[in-house]
Write a structure and sequence with these properties.
The complex is a heterodimer. Chain A is built from seven helices and 13 strands. Chain A has a single domain, classed as Class I glutamine amidotransferase (GATase) domain (Rossmann fold, 3-Layer(aba) Sandwich). Chain A is globular. Chain A is an alpha/beta fold. In chain A, the strands form three sheets. In chain A, strands 2-1-3-4-13-12-11-8-9 form a nine-stranded mixed sheet, sandwiched between helices. A two-stranded antiparallel sheet of chain A has the order 5-6. Chain B is of the alpha/beta class. Chain B has 14 helices and 17 strands. Chain B has two domains: 12-282, UDP-N-acetylmuramoyl-L-alanine:D-glutamate ligase (3-Layer(aba) Sandwich), CATH 3.40.1190; 294-412, Protein-Tyrosine Phosphatase, Chain A (Alpha-Beta Complex), CATH 3.90.190. In chain B, 35% of the residues lie in helices and 16% in strands. Chain B is globular and about 60 Å long. Classes of the chains: A alpha/beta, B alpha/beta.
């Protein structure tokens, strides 16, 4: 961490906050405070420079045009790439995940350059939109329990050699490539198609980011009763599609 | 069926369609499947696809659309226009073409048709029924897993309204509404306010970041900005184009309903009903399809409030009684609600601090996590009965989303 308080940066809520994405920021913030950490959360609008000194960056989902605008402004700004080279953690969802890759297909049907922070390329799927509850097993090296989330996307994301699949789906679509992969990660940069918001359904992922930011192996426990109850309910729902 | 007024009677085909539709509706009612208005309309439209246009041809039609407040506003406008003549309206909220057809088929003596239209169907219905006026209140995120994207909806409205001869009565405080309506040559702008701002931070025209000084909004990139209103909601008053202030007295609670009344007054004035007369008539509107109704259940008073999306919850929080009034929250995620619950995280539940909170509904666990992260005390209950039994004394505010609200009405007998 850069100083005594944890710096949480939420990227572009004006463009990429369509699916309750603020929830991911709220969960990280809450769980850090419950561990007695000081947290400063900064919400960066797309006409403001992205600070390079943050510890954890969150970037959410959005509609097609806002996604293009966000990619243009993040490329021009350059702050997020500098933050990552400083060792910052980035957690991205859906449209935000696609922006972190090399390229995606924008609202005009054209290939739009991303930030190249993940070795992935996204296209638009031919099949029906992927909508529904998902259950997946997270990369075992991350030591996390199963992933539960809600997907709602048309995008298909192909992983290059230096990106690891974040998870393998048991139920649902994930990256939409048909190979069962969901999301991607590399070092401190993570991407997923899961909404929910995903950190409300998987608080252990929020804790993983806190541990990476603090460079510790464990955190004091917090009361996870409601998170756990919700997880069980949604995992059961994913295995019994309507 | 006899048609009153000045126009040609319905063709034999249209008459047959209306009769067949009524028979289907009666059959649907008889087997206990609700009012039957949608099935009736579907049958009638299949027999005569132009029926909607034909039925509307005899009426001065007003269309009402929005994400929130369209059922209530339809009721307010209908009440106001009754000062001037009989009104037919889809007062029960069946707002797609079949439901609208069915409602109009029941109003052969009417002069006015006041029609609530689902957002997705507005452009089509506006083309079919040749309305005299279209009231547009607000647009915000709703049912994300299946509804069109909010901005795309505004774009469709804009295209649909560009060739339409109707006078559009539109909320200039909602940038998406301003964008949708400004393609029309005849707009009456109403400053009706909009608490929820999170769907309109980027300029609907060019994508620039909107500046929002005070109540104003503008895009410094392309110059698109808040149009100058001729009507406005100002506290408890409607300001008309002559600068007169008319007091709003409603039985319906909350700022959002005052905004609905302001828009309704502007619509009524367009048809020659003066604001004073219109507003006095609006006072008569009580509960709308059970919404805002106070019911007695298990010896307690419950006020039933419908909130379907973040903007609706925000407006609802501003009208409930202050703490320590107990609050029951109920959330489902069935088809009609949208199956994605992530919108719960767009709602600022910290505004409920100090209220005893009880959580029910199919998705009470999503809500429990949401409230836990907001740092609130709450209790999760299995049923509304349990929640009511556990609530401390006083009238209980019950806030529910769409199907949760229907469940609730069924249970508490309203």
């Amino acid at each position: 961490m850069s100083d005594s308080s944890l710096r949480l940066v939420w990227i572009y809520p004006d463009l990429l906050s369509t699916y309750g994405d603020q929830g991911n920021a709220l969960v990280v913030e809450r769980r850090a405070r419950q561990r007695g950490l000081e947290v400063s959360r900064v919400d960066i609008r797309s006409d403001q420079p992205v600070p390079t000194s943050g510890d954890i960056y969150l970037i959410g989902g959005g509609e097609d045009r806002p996604q293009r605008l966000a990619a243009e402004r993040l490329r021009r700004d350059g702050g997020l790439n500098r933050a990552v080279s400083n060792g910052a953690i980035v957690f991205s969802v859906c449209a935000g995940y696609q922006i972190l890759g090399h390229e995606f297909v924008n609202d005009l049907g054209e290939r739009e350059a991303g930030l190249g922070l993940l070795d992935v390329v996204s296209t638009r799927g031919e099949a029906e939109r992927c909508v529904g509850d998902v259950l997946a097993d997270i990369d075992s090296r991350l030591g996390l329990p199963p992933l539960t989330g809600f997907e709602n996307h048309q995008g298909v994301t192909h992983l290059g050699p230096s990106a690891q699949p974040f998870a393998r789906v048991r139920f649902g679509n994930g990256n939409g490539t048909g190979d069962g992969t969901e999301g991607a990660w590399n070092d401190t940069v993570f991407g997923t198609y899961m909404h929910g918001p995903v950190l409300a359904r998987n608080p252990q992922i929020a804790d993983l980011m806190l541990k990476l930011a603090l460079d510790v192996n464990a955190l004091p426990p917090v009361d996870d009763r409601w998170y756990e109850a919700l997880r069980q309910e949604r995992i059961a729902a994913a295995t019994q599609p309507a | 069926m006899t048609m009153a007024g000045n126009s040609e009677p319905l063709s034999p085909r249209a008459k047959l369609a209306v009769t067949a539709g009524r028979a289907a509706a009666a059959a649907s009612r008889a087997v206990g499947r609700g009012s039957g208005s949608v099935i009736g309309g579907k049958v009638a439209l299949r027999l005569d696809p132009d029926l909607l246009a034909r039925l509307a041809g005899h009426l001065d039609v007003v269309l009402v659309s929005a994400t929130n407040g369209k059922t209530t506003t339809t009721r307010l406008i209908a009440e106001a226009l009754r000062a001037s003549g009989p009104v037919v309206s889809n007062a029960l909220g069946a707002n797609m073409p079949a439901g609208i057809t069915s409602a109009l088929a029941g109003g052969s003596d009417a002069r006015f048709g006041v029609i609530e239209v689902d957002e997705k169907y507005l452009a089509g219905v506006a083309r079919d029924v040749t309305p005299k006026a279209i009231a547009l209140l607000n647009l915000s995120r709703d049912q994300l897993d299946r509804a069109a994207e909010t901005r795309m909806l505004a774009e469709k409205w804009r295209e649909g309204l560009s060739g339409n001869k109707a006078t559009v009565i539109a909320n200039c405080d909602d940038p998406l509404i301003a964008w949708a309506a400004s393609s029309s040559p005849n707009v009456v702008w109403v400053a009706a306010g909009q608490e929820w701002k999170d769907d309109a931070w980027s300029c609907p025209s060019c994508g620039g970041v909107l500046q929002r000084p005070g109540d104003d909004w503008l895009c410094s990139d392309c110059g698109f900005r808040r149009p100058m209103p001729t009507w406005a909601l100002s506290g408890d008053y409607v300001l008309d184009p002559h600068g007169s202030a008319w007091p709003i007295h409603l039985q319906l609670p909350g700022r959002a309903n005052k905004a609905n009344a302001a828009t309704s007054a502007a619509v009524a004035a367009h048809f020659g009903v003066p604001p004073q007369v219109a507003l006095e008539r609006m006072y008569q509107v009580q509960a709308v399809a059970g919404r805002y109704d106070v019911v007695s259940f298990e010896g307690r008073d419950l006020r039933l409030l419908l909130a379907k999306n973040p903007a609706g919850w925000l407006e609802t929080f501003s009208l409930i009684d202050p703490p320590p009034t107990p609050v029951i929250l109920s959330v489902n995620a069935r088809g009609a609600d949208g199956t994605d619950t992530s919108w719960l995280w767009d709602v600022d539940y910290t505004r409920l601090a100090g209220h005893p909170i009880f959580v029910i509904g199919d998705r009470r666990l999503d809500l429990a996590v949401r409230l836990e992260v907001a740092g609130l005390d709450f209790r999760v209950c299995e049923t509304v009965d349990e929640a009511v039994g556990a609530a401390p004394p006083g009238r209980i505010e019950v806030i529910a989303n769409y199907t949760a609200f229907q469940d609730l009405r069924r249970r508490v007998g309203n």
